Amino acid sequence: xAILVVGGAGYIGSHAARVLRxxxxxxxxxxxxxxxxxxxxxxxxLVVGDIADSDRLAPVMRRVEAVMHFxxxxxxxxxxxxxxxxxxxxxxxALNLLNTAQECGVRHFVFSSTCAVYGVPAKVPIDExxxxxxxxxxxxxxxxxxxxxEAYSRAYGMNYAxxxxxxxxxxxxxxxxxxxxxxxxxxxxxxxxxxxxxxxPLRIFGNDYPTPxxxxxxxxxxxxxxxxxxxxxxxxxxxxxxxxxxxxxTGTGYSVREVMMAVEQVTGNKAAYEVAPRRAGDPxxxxxxxxxxxxxxxxxxxxxxxxxxxxxxxWKQRQIAKQAEAAALPKN
Length: 332
Ligand code: UDP
Fold this sequence. Notes:
The protein is α/β, with parallel strands linked by helices. The chain has two domains: 2-170 and 222-248, 3-Layer(aba) Sandwich (Rossmann fold); 187-217 and 251-288 and 303-328, Alpha-Beta Complex (UDP-galactose 4-epimerase, domain 1). Helices cover 41% and strands 17% of the residues. The chain contains ten helices and 14 strands. Strand 1 (2-6), helix 1 (11-22) and strand 2 form a beta-alpha-beta unit. The longest helix is centred in the C-terminal third of the chain and has 24 residues, at 305-328. The mean pLDDT is 96. The protein binds uridine-5'-diphosphate. Uridine-5'-diphosphate binds next to helix 6 and strand 8.
């Protein structure tokens, strides 16, 4: 069975593509390479194109039974400064993707949603009954697409899974693919950089939150655990046809300080840091209640924070070695 992984040259999409292939699916990747990397799609059929481009999308769309959609911008801060970019891509162009899928007879749609649709929840852990009240344009753009999927499934019969990720982190155990953002803003890569010779100290965004050590708490979920949830979601859609939305997290939260400790343990190095002001829009604690994903999909995260940091470190070291190799090559 053939699946189209839209945004499959990006961080989470490239992991999902590999996990799908390990489960025996035929995989096509569609990506405009604006933030993705061609090498993350190595070994796959890659169509380079934008999700706004129906003519480019339609031929590959007609060859698949399901679409997984990862092609979105995902920086909260940037979405506040440049909402136009977020609504243009995550809503406008994404609707074009959905319309093209519908016109091409795609029956199943798996969507990368986010815990940002909940905004600042009244209580943690967060379950799916929590009101969806996003507090930034990124979360609003994702919620809009959830609404579109709900309406399309009612009206046109295409079924969907909205998968609300908590903090995706870590890398494939092979070390071949991993997180590569430019600029990098995420905690774990930056904490690893701070534990690497010549790396900048980590800026801890606020140590006066109402949490045990004063730093923010998040639910870090290994990218391959996320990828495996996509496969289970797809199987569920194909088996009984009912659409659904589920949280994907571990159910355990770690503070920024605890993540730093894990980084120091894995790397064996000290991670330099300084305390900086709070980052706008950061809630004190976001932790998933992932019991619906367990009950509905039989899914549970199998990797812990230690595994997340160790695989991210392995990936980072591979990248450093590759760069050193490239620098050592004679220039002509
Ligand atoms: N964080 C931090 N310093 C950084 C990057 C992140 O203290 O340089 C904190 C951030 O405030 C949040 C947590 O780490 O509490 C996770 O942030 P990240 O940007 O990785 O993911 P987000 O939760 O924004 O999706």
